Amino acid sequence: MSDSSAPADQVFLRRHNLAMVLRDLRDAGPRSRARIAADTGLNKATVSSLIAELAELGLVRDGVVERGGGVGRPGQTVEIDGRICGLGAEVNVDYVAVLVLDLRGEEVSYVRTPLDVPRLGVDSTLDELAAVIAAAVDDAAARGHDVAGITVGIPGMVETAPGVLRHAPNVGWREVRIADELAARLAGPAAIIRVDNDANLSALAEYTMGTSAGTLDLVYVTGETGVGGGVISDGVLLRGTEGYGGEIGHMPIGDPAHRCGCGKLGCWETSVGLAALLREVADPDDPVTDPSVDLEVRLAEIRRRAALGDGRTLRGIEAVGTGLGLGAAILVNLFNPRVIVLGGYFAELGEFFLPVMETELDKRVVAPARGGCRIELSSLGFTAACRGGAHVALDAVFTDPAAVGTAAADPVPTPIPGGMA
Amino acid sequence: MSDSSAPADQVFLRRHNLAMVLRDLRDAGPRSRARIAADTGLNKATVSSLIAELAELGLVRDGVVERGGGVGRPGQTVEIDGRICGLGAEVNVDYVAVLVLDLRGEEVSYVRTPLDVPRLGVDSTLDELAAVIAAAVDDAAARGHDVAGITVGIPGMVETAPGVLRHAPNVGWREVRIADELAARLAGPAAIIRVDNDANLSALAEYTMGTSAGTLDLVYVTGETGVGGGVISDGVLLRGTEGYGGEIGHMPIGDPAHRCGCGKLGCWETSVGLAALLREVADPDDPVTDPSVDLEVRLAEIRRRAALGDGRTLRGIEAVGTGLGLGAAILVNLFNPRVIVLGGYFAELGEFFLPVMETELDKRVVAPARGGCRIELSSLGFTAACRGGAHVALDAVFTDPAAVGTAAADPVPTPIPGGMA
């Protein structure tokens, strides 16, 4: 009954229907045009025409021929083509990482490069990141993939619209135009570059492909040098008015004697971040505190000591776990999530943190039975932010498949050698 | 193109269009059928038929005749009829209150009855509340109004679907089937009864009719005996997985020496709730601590002393304001709201709290310029929860106008004398 006969509406409707068909294939799996018509309520001629357009865009392809249970003639199925990819990148305190996912959700590549980011500074780090991204794009291209979009996660406060990092306390960056800086280092009609807070991207990854995928109220809490948070509330990422929501690491509930990377005293992350754990469990000359040793190796050593019952290690973990529980109780009181997913080093030592945290939650949460909240360890490990970034890039394709046409024509951002200097 | 020709879809479409027309009149004001057609994209014959149905339901009526700027013939305008009303009720520690708003958003009546709720207990309080509601409904009926829905706000954790209060620490209630209990006390085919957390309803009231109405990211913080919170995130009330979101009063950031109404030690409300203020500013025999004196009178006296520069009063307000700022900083770090609206007694003494809170926020918030957050004093005063409740009842009418037909046939819940005993 609404006046949708104007040409502009027809274009809108066509794009909407393209997206609907593509998402049906993602969510329901390979199927015949007849079943897509049944799923979506579109008529079969329209579905055929939409499939043809999606195939031309390189987003779907013919699948197996279905020979059903005797009813009707065998049907040619359609499936999502994995050619188009999304790339997620992450800059953290001591590494940069890049992960490529194809449109089917399958991992194409993952590279993590140790890097002393605070020491290297903005320009050299972005040079290095551009080189890693370009290598991943080239590698994907060599295997027949096109990267349609790039999302960079940063442990700091990001204004997503222009892709500007306002402040990343623990890497010491302020006011960096990440998207522009990176675009300048990647030549050609590059893929769209988005920038976001790393914990927000990790929360999206947990919500779309983690163990608790689909849980509408989910809080992600990651421990590295800093402590980051991402909040999914009723299925939507909570961003806040300027995109700075979820800054859980700076809740003023830590020991006021410790100064945080942000310059303030007593932030939560000074009590439960990686530095706090290392301070508790080891002397300064203990190899587990040596930043030149890979973090996962050091965490494995701490886990080994805890499993052996080492007193100092267990006391340290208990102290950090109590602090974790205190902050988690605030998160439960405020967000009433179904699940808190622990990421970063919290997940690596999670089996030891869990009982202490749960005791603390029982003491501190006001809702009956912790408001139905469980604590879970992330299965995505240190790849969560990259995965979330790749997901965001792919999500743009599922939202407007026709837009991929432009990028797909020449989607490969090739590096400018000069830009790497 | 979608298959919307099935009978079920026609019914759905009709209801959807009825709602669209009614909301157009609410948001854009009285107007001709032709302008409604232009606003909504519906054709004029459809609009006329929808208007006829809305008029029959008692939701719209003829307004003035427009004699426009020379173009076209003069048009009969349509406007919202104020006959249908929503009723918001509130149970708090020391009062029950009822407020009736008509469909045009105008206040029909407001009654606040002092009551020692923790002492009276569940049954007597609900008897009293039912009597106040019935009186308000009768009063509205005498003036030609029909109450289509009732929403009860309670300072506690509410499961909204069946309308059950799980726990209200400061009134001492647990597991009360408020909706059923109230329905049993109100005879006849009563209006729909909903139950919700009082601060959630207040947040909705601020979002829809407060000074910062329409601000998409808004946190409401109210101080009474308890401290309650309601969070609007990107225009949606944050409820959490079981409806217990926004329990800000029980953040463990208070003095661990004080036991909270919830039984735990060191909850935020033990540092900034009304009891904390009174403890700081007055001796136990000071009349401002006397619960039998109206709260607004006592707050006026405290305000007077502060304005006169009384040392103990100012120090007390500063101590509470610092605690308020500490908790507010957590809310800003987590939700990144555009505005924090202070309600309850916080608003009454707000002019004295603001500078201390702002200093604290500047010290504690990690986002630049407090993430763009301002603090505002509620202009709705102690009526906020009732207003929010009435809004929720009316919102149901704007969402599905046709459903009012049933209630409008006999919407008046008349009291059963026996139920009042």
Side by side, the strands of the main sheet of chain A go 6-5-4-7-12
Distance between the termini of chain A: 61 Å
| Uncertain stretches of 5 or more adjacent residues of chain A | 1-7, 407-421
**Percent range of helical residues of chain A:** 40-55%
The CATH topology of the largest domain in chain A, please? Nucleotidyltransferase, domain 5
The CATH class name of the largest domain in chain A reads Alpha Beta
Number of domains of chain A: 3
Shape of chain A: globular
The number of E-state strands of chain A comes to: 18
Q: Write the CATH architecture name of the largest domain in chain A.
A: 2-Layer Sandwich
Give the class of chain A from helix and strand content and strand pairing: alpha+beta
> What does the oligomeric state look like here?
homodimer
Main beta-sheet strand count, sense and barrel state of chain A: 5 strands, mixed
The Rg value of chain A, from CA coordinates, equals: 23 Å
Total DSSP helices of chain A = 14
Name of the CATH superfamily of the largest domain in chain A: ATPase, nucleotide binding domain
**Beta-strand fraction estimate of chain A:** 15-25%
Largest interface: A-B, 60 and 60 residues
Mean pLDDT of chain A: 90
